[in-house]
Amino acid sequence: MAAPTVGVLALQGDVREHQQVLTDLGAEVVLVRTPAQLETVAGLVIPGGESSVIDKLSRIFDIAEPIKKRISSGMPVLGTCAGLIMLADTVLDAIDGQRSFGGLDVTVRRNAFGSQNQSFETELDVPELGEPAVHATFIRGPVVDAVGDRARVMAALPDGRVVAVSQGNLLGTSFHPEMNGETRFHRYFLDRVTDHAA
Ligand SMILES: NC(=O)CC[C@H](N)C(=O)O
């Protein structure tokens, strides 16, 4: 089967890191900034960065509504860190007027682990992905404060704080798998893309 064509939302954030992982996994990658580019992709990665900026630019570029429509119609999406915030139905500690695309039945709290210099890395058990544990980098990441009926916890820290969730074709992580040579989340995403296209 031909390699799936997937997009990385390229308004702001660590776009290149995601592009690299996806390309290494054999996907065709389009950097998405316009609704026309969005139409060419079968799935979308929303990178880490600053969610309030991604939100603002997505509205300026008139791509926020088209993304919401694609999410409602089942397009697979992987969001990391700011990307998870953009996927969450409810965002706490949002900057004034900040909106998300939504889709994931969760409430996230921005910057829940403190400031940039409180960034940390840890080994995270993600039962669905098996061994070895995921080496997870947290950089001013959000925490998932509440998980609604439609969403599912994929991973939590030992203290119980939820840091990875999925719902149908949507997957969000508080951390940055794209920064550690971790490919299993992107594989999971690409599998959803292949299944959705079938
Ligand atoms: N590394 C990140 O993506 C940080 C997310 C950022 N704190 C935000 O609110 O969007």
Structural description of this entry:
With 198 residues, the chain is of the alpha/beta class. Helix content is 27%, strand content 29%. The chain has six helices and twelve strands. The protein has helices at residues 15-24, 35-39, 51-60, 64-72, 82-87, 184-197, and strands at 5-9, 28-32, 44-46, 77-80, 88-92, 104-109, 120-124, 134-138, 143-147, 152-156, 162-167, 170-173. Strands 2-1-3-4-12-11-10 form a seven-stranded mixed sheet. β11 (162-167) and β12 (170-173) form a beta hairpin. The longest helix is centred in the C-terminal third of the chain and has 14 residues, at 184-197. The radius of gyration is 15 Å and the shape is globular. Bound molecules: glutamine (GLN). The site of glutamine has 12 residues, from α5.
List the helices and strands and how they pair.
Layout: E1 5-9, H1 15-24, E2 28-32, H2 35-39, E3 44-46, H3 51-60, H4 64-72, E4 77-80, H5 82-87, E5 88-92, E6 104-109, E7 120-124, E8 134-138, E9 143-147, E10 152-156, E11 162-167, E12 170-173, H6 184-197
Parallel strand pairs: 1-2, 1-3, 3-4, 4-12, 5-6
Antiparallel strand pairs: 6-9, 7-8, 10-11, 11-12
Residues 48-51, 81-82, 85, 110-111, 139-141 line the site of glutamine (GLN).
Under the CATH scheme, the architecture is 3-Layer(aba) Sandwich
Question: Radius of gyration, Cα only, in angstroms?
Answer: 15 Å
Q: Sheet bearing the most strands, described?
A: 7 strands, mixed
CATH class: Alpha Beta
Q: Please tell me the total number of domains.
A: 1
What binds here, in terms of ligands, is: glutamine
Mean residue pLDDT: 96
The helix count comes to 6
- The low-pLDDT segments are none
Shape: globular
Give the total of beta strands: 12
Main β-sheet, spatial strand arrangement: 2-1-3-4-12-11-10
